[in-house]
Amino acid sequence: MATVQVSEAEKVYILHGIRDDLRVDGRGCEDYRHMETETDVVSNTDGSAKVTLGHTAVLVGIKAEIRKPRPMLPDEGYLEFFVDCSANATPEFEGRGGEELGTELSNTLYKVFNNKHSVDLKSLCISAGEHCWVLYVDVLLLQCDGNLYDAISIAIKAALFNTKIPRVHISTDDEGGKEIELSDDPFDCMRLNVENVPCIVTLCKVGHRHVVDATLQEKACSVASLIISVTHKGTVTCLRKVGGGSLDPESIFEMTEAGKRVGKALHTPLMNLLKQEESLGKTRQKVGFLG
Amino acid sequence: MPTDTKRVRGPEVSQSPSVFQCKPAAALPSCGVRADGRQRDQLDVRPVFVRCGLVSQAKGSAYIEAGNTKLMCCVYGPRETKRKDETDMKCGRLTADMRFAPFSCPERGSWIQSSQDKDFSLMLLESLQPAVCLHKYPRSQIEVNVMVLENSGSVLAHAITCASLALADAGIEMYDLVLGCSIRQDGASYVVDPTYVEENSCGSASEENQGGLTVAFLPSLNQISGLQSDGEMTKESLTDGIRTCIEGCYKLYPVVQQALAKAVRKAAPPPSES
């Protein structure tokens, strides 16, 4: 992760502030920074979203392609994640520098979505054993100011909500082979149900307390963080400790409780916002990348 | 995707014959005794065999066998960091690498590290780092290499135990041994130290509350140094699962200590007769 150098005096200052539930920018320990979400920003994709969380900016594009399903699961489609840490974000990511971080992020995303209920994979099947939809979820980090996991998960949820998969139907031609036909109407498409898509909450252990949505300075003062991915019902799909320090079991239980609470509270406003944005339809003012 | 141009590989379209099985593998029942006779919902781990000091070239090494899971670990170091720009003046660097032999899993794997291998290596590194006194080895690098010879379930948990044993065998100063334990939650019941089949069973009748959890624990200090879960579980089953894994680590501790003491005694010179 891009790091900043923090002096000892600054570390003590941040630590004491967090102990009194007051962070450097005035937030409480469980408050997020200002978050902006916008969908349908890239026209060449089947679904896209851009999320800005403080100074962290993440762009997700989803493309749907038709492929052969996995041999062990012939009646399901699947998702493929790829995270690219662009050199725009920090000079550390130049060349292959961002590869390690990108692999770590995409591996965690695979774990988060590795269950039956997050995305209805059976609806992505076209014909069992032969054709299925594969959703390539490509994440691009534009700016990096801490808390990448949260921003990425919200962007993926928004992009999946925005995804429009064209309807196809299979017809048998004369020789008995199967032909795929795309429907002529460009607006005839299938939407995904993203109610169960989880959101990731990162909790950093700073001193004896934990903070949500840590900035880079706060991250430099913490030894370990806990990543918890929560659905709107409160089920935890992934729990993972990152960082080179160790945690007390009691603090892990506390942080899991807090993460579940914060994560659950994220879903309703996000879904409302997405539905509202969708309902504006053609009258929506697209903000895009400037302004 | 990086391709391996040095080795002659088998045809890419080859598939394992298990794909063509007539009957799909029956989902394991979620109640009753497990396939190998152990109990559900109880701390029933497989008996563990550990030995240290197997590889003569390595500074420290360890081999662990639990049921059919076999893995070995070698530790090299502390030695000078290979790349000068990665030298840290104040503390040492620990690198961990976990690889699966292609014949270790039921489906043939490849020698190129897949992203799952990298994920395991990262998890191994994060679990071992809090335990090693890196500040005592400035400007040095300690390398931990784990090779999985046979994967029969809870391979990450045993890799963590094996790696900390190898580090101890190499004489690297540590705060405590790191022990790993994993469970698999299946509906309302859980199984400790799951086998490969139990880990990958595609789900039984109950659709909710399915997942796996691996915990790396430092017993003397009561600290969790590694934690990873996937699937979907309720928070209560997660907290209970973490507690169960901690108990499993406490149960494993005396076995590991005994193996280490045995290896030290063997390496020490015999007491003089006078």
Automatic annotation (TrEMBL), chain A:
Q: Does the keyword Cytoplasm apply?
A: yes
Q: Which UniProt keywords apply?
A: Acetylation, Cytoplasm, Exosome, Nucleus, RNA-binding, rRNA processing
Which InterPro entries does the entry mention?
ExoRNase_PH_dom1, ExoRNase_PH_dom2, ExoRNase_PH_dom2_sf, Exosome_comp_Rrp42_subfam, PNPase/RNase_PH_dom_sf, Ribosomal_Su5_D2-typ_SF
The UniProt entry, under Gene3D superfamilies, shows: GHMP Kinase, N-terminal domain
Q: What is its main location?
A: cytoplasm
> In what residue span(s) does the Exoribonuclease phosphorolytic domain sit?
32-166, 196-261
Q: Some GO term, biological process aspect, for this entry: which one?
A: nuclear mRNA surveillance
Report which superkingdom the organism of origin falls in: Eukaryota
Q: Where in the cell is it found?
A: Cytoplasm; Nucleus, Nucleolus
| Molecular function via GO | mRNA 3'-UTR AU-rich region binding
- GO CC annotations? cytoplasmic exosome (RNase complex); nuclear exosome (RNase complex); nucleolus
Q: Which family does it belong to?
A: Belongs to the RNase PH family.
| Subunit and partners | Component of the RNA exosome core complex (Exo-9), composed of EXOSC1, EXOSC2, EXOSC3, EXOSC4, EXOSC5, EXOSC6, EXOSC7, EXOSC8 and EXOSC9; within the complex interacts with EXOSC2 and EXOSC4. The catalytically inactive RNA exosome core complex (Exo-9) associates with the catalytic subunit EXOSC10/RRP6. Exo-9 may associate with DIS3 to form the nucleolar exosome complex, or DIS3L to form the cytoplasmic exosome complex. Exo-9 is formed by a hexameric base ring consisting of the heterodimers EXOSC4-EXOSC9, EXOSC5-EXOSC8 and EXOSC6-EXOSC7, and a cap ring consisting of EXOSC1, EXOSC2 and EXOSC3.
User: PANTHER family, per this entry?
Assistant: EXOSOME COMPLEX COMPONENT RRP42 (PTHR11097:SF8), EXOSOME COMPLEX EXONUCLEASE RIBOSOMAL RNA PROCESSING PROTEIN (PTHR11097)
Protein name (Swiss-Prot/TrEMBL): Exosome component 7
Q: What organism, scientifically named, is this protein from?
A: Sphaeramia orbicularis (orbiculate cardinalfish)
UniProtKB/TrEMBL annotation, chain B:
Q: Which GO terms describe its cellular component?
A: cytoplasmic exosome (RNase complex); nuclear exosome (RNase complex); nucleolus
Q: What keywords are annotated for this sequence in UniProt?
A: Cytoplasm, Exosome, Nucleus, RNA-binding, rRNA processing
State the Gene Ontology BP annotations.
nuclear mRNA surveillance; poly(A)-dependent snoRNA 3'-end processing; rRNA catabolic process; rRNA processing; U4 snRNA 3'-end processing
Would you say which domain of life the source belongs to? Eukaryota
One MF annotation (Gene Ontology) recorded for this entry: RNA binding
CDD domains referenced in this protein's UniProt entry, alphabetically:
RNase_PH_MTR3
- Kindly list the places in or outside the cell where this protein is found, as annotated in its UniProt entry: Cytoplasm; Nucleus, Nucleolus
- Give every Exoribonuclease phosphorolytic domain span: 45-173
Q: What does this protein do?
A: Non-catalytic component of the RNA exosome complex which has 3'->5' exoribonuclease activity and participates in a multitude of cellular RNA processing and degradation events.
Q: How does it assemble?
A: Component of the RNA exosome complex.
State the family named in the UniProt similarity comment for this chain: Belongs to the RNase PH family.
* UniProt protein name: Exosome complex component MTR3
Q: In which organism is this protein found? A: Sphaeramia orbicularis (orbiculate cardinalfish)
What lineage does the source organism belong to?
Eukaryota, Metazoa, Chordata, Craniata, Vertebrata
